[in-house]
Automatic annotation (TrEMBL):
The protein's name in its UniProt record: Uncharacterized protein
InterPro entries (alphabetical): WD40/YVTN_repeat-like_dom_sf (IPR015943), WD40_repeat_dom_sf (IPR036322), WD40_rpt (IPR001680), WDR55/POC1 (IPR050505)
Domain of life: Eukaryota
Keywords noted in UniProt: Repeat, WD repeat
Length: 519
């Protein structure tokens, strides 16, 4: 149904028009660019709350339907693609494989034809070349032989002379003179040409057809796709993984990855010891960091392992040796992050501190207004802070709150989706995308009854999420928001991570680490 906006007079689909509390109907777009409370566009006599409007039953239904339609739009193309396959999988497989076989058959005939032509062309050209050479050879031979009078010489050889003749003065001199004047060099050159021509032959006398050098067709890519998931490592590594429930340890990155593929974790037996291991060979290296428990580990941009222990020391390791160490204030830490040469920490009494990474000196410190649940460096010197009901963007140097998004939930894990977009997982099991620049919610969906404790972007527009009930999901960002591409559930899994080589690492509460080659 088409209706008219009572503010800008634009004719719109009913769905895209929302009611104000006073009853007027206006475009949904008008709400996007205003603050949460504003004076009524039309009456101008009463304040209006945006969230109140969004929650009015009529509007709520419209917004929900719009969400449904955008998601449906993205899913629809996928459904259209899978429908004929789902209806008759055998037929679909036969069809596509037959198509490939036909393609190969056709290529066979075409190749024979092309080869025949190309071989003929090659040998024809060779013969033409030889014919051209023949003319030059003829010229050369003719030219070199023109001065050579063989008859006179042969006569000289065959003449039989009497002794009287031989006794005549100068008799042999004239004969020798005649022979000496013969250009033997020319004779050699001409004879040589014939020898060379006779010896010319093909270097490779046998013709071998090596299709692999000529055609490239990659059938293995099909096998790679249909190969069943294969765990490359399924050794229980109980000593590596803390057994604590994820909620108790929130903020701890259980396992980090170095640029060479080595994994870094905290020993469960000696909770002050770092363990570095390569998933392809089970050799472990241990670094004793402290007598106290390691509370946080993070691999910095420079491939250094940053550890924070319960006795408030930050120790930084490179190539397994301690390179920097400094002490921080004795408040319990809630979360840490690093960027270039800076170390950011948030504690349980809402202090945010920016430190120089190289010496631990405090550059700035300020107090956030609410309890902090998560932090994430957004850009240089800008930090996203998730508190009880919002995500705020702060300037770390000026202590200025740049933006605030009321999400009315607790964000447990924030990551950067693109230059202006963030994704976060909430305590009530929602995964949400937000445009920071436009202060606009892009999508939000409930995926679990449990807290969504891990929400990491691992590739452009691809997100990995893990909720506390062990449900792992891979998401793809599309027009209408996020859609699931892979879902995997394992009751025991308490941590998951996509490694740099795209394999999936999971670990259970009992410490079983599994790496799947394919996600
Ligand atoms: Zn309007
Ligand atoms: Zn009004």
């Amino acid at each position: 149904m088409l209706l008219v906006c009572e503010w800008c007079q634009k004719i719109q689909d009913d769905l895209k028009l929302l009611n104000l509390p006073c009853g007027y109907l206006i475009c949904k777009d008008h709400f996007d660019s205003i603050t949460d409370t504003f004076d009524c566009f039309i009456c101008k006599t009463h304040p209006v709350s945006k969230s109140y409007c969004y929650n009015m039953p009529k509007n709520r239904v419209k917004l929900a339907e719009l969400d449904f339609l955008t998601i449906a739009d993205s899913i629809k193309t996928k459904i259209d693609e899978i429908l004929p396959i789902k209806n008759d999988p055998n037929h679909a497989v036969n069809e596509t494989i037959s198509f490939l076989i036909n393609k190969i058959d056709l290529k066979r005939e075409l190749t024979k034809l092309q080869y025949n032509t190309q071989i003929d062309d090659y040998f024809d050209k060779l013969i033409q070349d030889v014919k051209k050479i023949k003319l030059s050879v003829q010229d050369y031979v003719d030219m070199n032989l023109s001065d050579l009078n063989l008859e006179i010489i042969q006569t000289t050889f065959s003449q039989t002379s009497s002794l009287t003749d031989k006794l005549k003065p100068g008799y042999f001199d004239s004969k020798i003179e005649l022979l000496r004047n013969i250009d033997t060099n020319k004779i050699d050159q001409v004879v040589n040409i014939f020898k060379v021509i006779e010896k010319i032959d093909f270097e490779n006398k046998e013709f071998k057809f090596d299709p692999n050098k000529i055609f490239s067709i990659n059938l293995n890519q099909i096998l790679d796709l249909v190969k069943r998931d294969e765990a490359i490592e399924q050794t229980p590594m109980a000593k590596i993984i803390p057994k604590d429930n994820l909620t108790k340890q929130f903020g701890l990155s259980y396992i980090e990855e170095l640029s060479n593929g080595d994994l870094v974790g905290v020993s469960d037996l000696h909770c002050g010891t770092l363990i570095i291991w390569n998933p392809f060979n089970t050799k472990l290296k241990e670094i004793k960091v402290s007598e106290k428990k390691i509370k946080f580990i993070k691999v910095s941009d420079n491939d250094e392992i940053v550890t924070v222990t319960n006795d408030f020391y930050v120790k930084i390791y490179r190539d397994e040796s301690l390179v920097k160490m400094f002490q921080i204030s004795s408040n319990r830490l809630k979360a840490i992050d690093t960027y270039s040469n800076y170390f950011v920490s948030a504690d349980t009494i809402m202090n945010i501190t920016l430190r120089d990474f190289t010496n631990g000196k405090i550059i700035n410190t300020f107090k956030a207004p609410n309890f902090i649940h998560s932090i994430k460096v957004y850009r240089n010197d800008e930090l996203l802070i998730g508190d009880n009901e919002s995500i705020c963007l702060w300037n770390l140097r000026t202590s200025e709150c740049l933006k605030e998004f009321k999400i009315l939930k607790r964000a447990l894990s924030i990551d950067l989706l693109s230059e202006n977009e963030i994704v976060f997982g909430t305590r009530d099991g929602k995964i949400c995308c937000w445009n920071v620049n436009e202060n606009k919610r892009l999508s939000s969906q409930t995926i679990s009854k449990n807290p969504l404790a891990i929400c990491k972007v691992y590739e452009k527009n691809k997100i990995f999420s893990c909720s506390e009930d062990g449900e792992l999901r891979l998401w793809e960002k599309c027009k209408g928001g996020l859609i699931v591409s892979v879902k995997r559930r394992s009751k025991e899994v308490c941590f998951g991570k996509i490694l740099k080589n795209k394999s999936l690492l999971t670990c259970t509460k009992t410490g079983l680490v599994t790496i799947l080659k394919k996600i």
